[in-house]
Amino acid sequence: xxxxxxxxxxxxxxxxxxxxxxxxxxxxxxxxxxxxxxxxxxxxxxxxxxxxxxxxxxxxxxxxxxxxxxxxxxxxxxxxxxxxxxxxxxxxxxxxxxxxxxxxxxxxxxxxxxxxxxxxxxxxxxxxxxxxxxxxxxxxxxxxxxxxxxxxxxxxxxxxxxxxx
Length: 165
Hints:
Elements: H1 11-22, H2 28-35, H3 39-51, E1 71-79, H4 85-93, E2 98-103, E3 110-116, H5 119-131, E4 137-144, H6 157-160
Helix pairs in contact: 2-3
């Protein structure tokens, strides 16, 4: 089965995507002025980008440090057997403190970002994971984040323009 091919993007679509990455609450009117379209034409483009799955949602970015003092930990996770991958991924998806996880190449299988109330909570959580034989975790190497130097702020504009082919 062929996946639906996303629409070709022009410079106006790319400007819309860049603008929405920086301000997802921008009004259609403000966005339309920025990309030099009528409000209706701009809204139609935004809806087309949403329908194509290029825009997948809108979120509020929180400054968690204003609410609590959590610990951010980047964990390198190695599985004993790849056969347990499905069970492991399902379990991680159900853990609220796992805010991001990537399967990666190299000497580890996954890199996960945990955000916990404190190190004791992180340790208890990873101990439960390691002690669960159904997950087949060989080891977890933890890196406690000290501070964000450059948090994610959106994708580079050059990557938004799809190359033909």
